[in-house]
Design goal:
With 151 residues, the protein is α+β, with helices and mostly antiparallel strands. Helices cover 30% and strands 14% of the residues. The chain binds a DNA duplex (13 and 13 nucleotides) through helix 4. GO terms for molecular function: DNA-binding transcription factor activity, RNA polymerase II-specific; sequence-specific DNA binding.
Length: 151
DNA sequence: TAGTAGGAACCAG
DNA sequence: CTGGTTCCTACTA
């Protein structure tokens, strides 16, 4: 509505996807206003919560990404090319260059109430769950994964 | 030693 | 029930 309501100076601390979703819940607004939140510096990387929102269609509620959605957003964001990048985008093949940072990013995007610290073992198990569903194909190669469909 | 695949129990939403 | 998360065994570089 009133765009001044969403200016960075008048919004609370929004440094996670969870905080952003909470704010959007209490302040109805469209994607055009998401840009107004600014970004925070997290471990030498600019983290912008609005980059990690999923909004399939206007009817569906805005939400945090699922794991495969998170991977696609990460891969298609040039700012994170040092974290992970496509090897063959047409074939859906990609490589994770900085596993530790990718896992930290995933934790931040999911805003888990960490019982334990997530590590690459648990993160990669999440990816491997997609093999059985047919959404991903094993590559048997270090830090290398493949989407079954480029869709 | 550190990654990969995948079974099984578990759990928050 | 979904979408992971936690834990673990087996295999390979």
């Amino acid at each position: 509505m009133d765009s001044t309501t969403f200016s960075p100076s008048t919004t609370p601390e929004i440094d996670s996807v969870e905080a952003l979703l909470d704010f959007i819940d209490s302040h109805p607004m469209g994607p055009e206003n998401w840009i107004d939140f600014g970004a925070v510096d997290i471990e030498e990387t600019l983290f912008d919560p609005t980059e990690w929102l999923i909004h399939p269609d206007p009817n569906e509620k805005v939400r945090a990404p699922k794991l495969y959605e998170f991977l696609v957003l990460l891969l298609n964001n040039e700012r994170y090319s040092a974290y992970a990048s496509w090897i063959d985008k047409e074939e859906g093949v990609f490589e994770i260059h900085n596993p530790a940072q990718v896992v930290k990013l995933w934790e931040k995007v999911k805003s888990r109430k960490a019982k334990q610290k997530m590590n690459f073992d648990t993160f990669s198990r999440g990816i491997r769950m997609y093999y059985a569903k047919g959404d991903m194909i094993p590559t048997y190669t270090r830090y290398t994964y493949r989407f079954a469909s480029t869709k």
